[in-house]
Design brief:
13-stranded mixed β-sheet; Aminopeptidase; 33% helix; 8 helices; alpha+beta; binds coenzyme A; 15 strands; two-stranded antiparallel sheet; elongated
Length: 276
């Protein structure tokens, strides 16, 4: 087995490996193929394949980050996994970093945390993906949480201050597709929180919370409940929320949320290794 640079002529084999090894996102050929082509064109020195008897059996797509390199994709053909090929691709990538005097390798992974830990990587942050199933539950409407409308713009700018930028940006991104899934919580004539949600690209049964801002936990819960209520009225199965806070994750788990394993809606582990 040898590791060499990936070339454009390897594209077909690399795409076959993606389709056989990856879940979801990376099996979406129209999305992954342009990424691979662009990487070969821009940073050919960071794109690798593993080859055995003239056959491509694994690949790694890499990129640059500040002070280091990032593993963007790695996969080994299912028939060749657990034979040290993934580790060999990573070792070669680390060698390239060292030759360039770069000391840090970073990546994020939903499923291969154990693999990276075995080869010396540490988890530095987790983005939890959670879902709450609305199907089969009785969910009541929430008072004082209203659907966000254009005429509310002056009020949220006044009451949410600097947070209104993000709220509005997220709202207008879903304005055409999901104009009816954004809400504000009004307490004593003031806006104390807001949320924007929209249908997940991969799964029309999942309403994804794209932005949530609230003055306190109680307001946050009310907003989430309203999203769940609207989702249940509209016949969606789940609402989904992502957080980096372990405390928020635990709170939601206690309230009946579950960690998700849905297409492209999964917990991601951010990992890194400092090279000596
Ligand atoms: C993850 C992947 C690249 C690893 O490649 P590989 O060639 O199978 O890995 P190696 O044989 O070098 O494994 C090195 C060690 O990690 C372990 N390991 C491999 N994959 C693992 C996984 N998914 N979870 C936990 N441990 C894993 C191996 O058992 C081995 O341990 P050992 O030395 O004690 O036997 C490969 O399994 C793969 O392509 N998986 C599907 C695609 C994928 O998940 N890619 C990562 C994207 S996030």
């Amino acid at each position: 087995m040898k590791i060499r640079r990936m070339e454009l002529k390897d594209l077909y084999d690399v795409l076959r490996i993606c389709n056989q090894s990856f879940l979801e996102m990376a099996r979406w050929t129209s999305r992954i193929a342009p990424m691979i082509i662009e990487s070969i064109r821009k940073y050919p020195e960071l794109q690798l394949v593993a080859e055995e008897d003239g056959k491509i059996i694994g690949f790694l797509r890499g990129g640059y980050i500040e002070n280091g390199l990032k593993v963007l994709h790695i996969a080994v053909h299912p028939s060749y996994q657990r034979r040290g090929i993934g580790s060999a691709l990573i070792s070669k990538f680390e060698e390239i970093a060292q030759e360039k005097n770069l000391k840090r390798i970073a990546l994020d992974t939903p499923f291969a945390k154990g693999f990276y830990e075995k080869i010396g990587y540490k988890c530095i942050s987790i983005e939890y993906a959670l879902i709450y199933e609305v199907l089969g539950k009785e969910i009541d409407d929430v008072e004082n949480v209203e659907e966000f409308k254009l005429e509310h713009i002056p009020y949220i700018i006044k009451d949410l201050g600097k947070y209104s930028f993000d709220f509005l940006m997220h709202f207008f991104k879903v304005y055409e597709s999901d104009p009816d899934k954004s809400f504000i919580y009004i307490k004593n004539s003031k806006v104390v929180g807001g949320t924007v949600s929209g249908t997940n690209t991969w799964n029309s049964d999942l309403v994804e919370i794209k932005y949530l801002i609230a003055k306190d936990n109680h307001s946050k819960e009310r907003l989430l409940k309203k999203v769940a209520y609207r989702a249940s009225l509209q016949g969606s199965r789940w609402i989904g929320y992502k957080t980096r806070s372990r405390e928020e994750y635990m709170n939601l788990i206690r309230k009946g949320w579950k960690e998700a394993q849905l297409p492209y809606w999964w917990t991601r582990y951010e990992m890194e290794k400092m090279l000596s």
